Amino acid sequence: MIAERDPAFDTSSILFWISGLLAVAVFFVGLFALVAPVPGSASFGAPVIDANNTQGIAWVRLMGVRDIGLAVMLLGLMAVKARRIAGLMLLLVVIIPIVDCATVIHALGITYHVLVHGGSAVLMVILGALLLRPSPSEAG
Q: Whole-prediction pTM value?
């Protein structure tokens, strides 16, 4: 069953550490966008040049809150050892870095930011699929 806790999803698991690193990275990216939206927008790949552009700044802050929320959700699932739900969540929200990638292409064309967002999407798909696999105790 997908909703069962996996006692093996703890600090001895490489998938736990990769999930945690992803969550912490996304959290800090979101925090950066929230507290420093002008440089945060540039690091995202769709820079808001004018700090007086309140509409642009508002969208960057929304992106920051979105990222913080996703990171906290993943950390929460890790805390309760919900490995398979975490995997499903990653697969369901992979649309976010894909759309982020398209947004950057639209704003600036092909830049290294596209690789960052695209790489995030690939990582999320691989990690999500690995987390969804049955645990060794379920296989036997």
A: 0.89
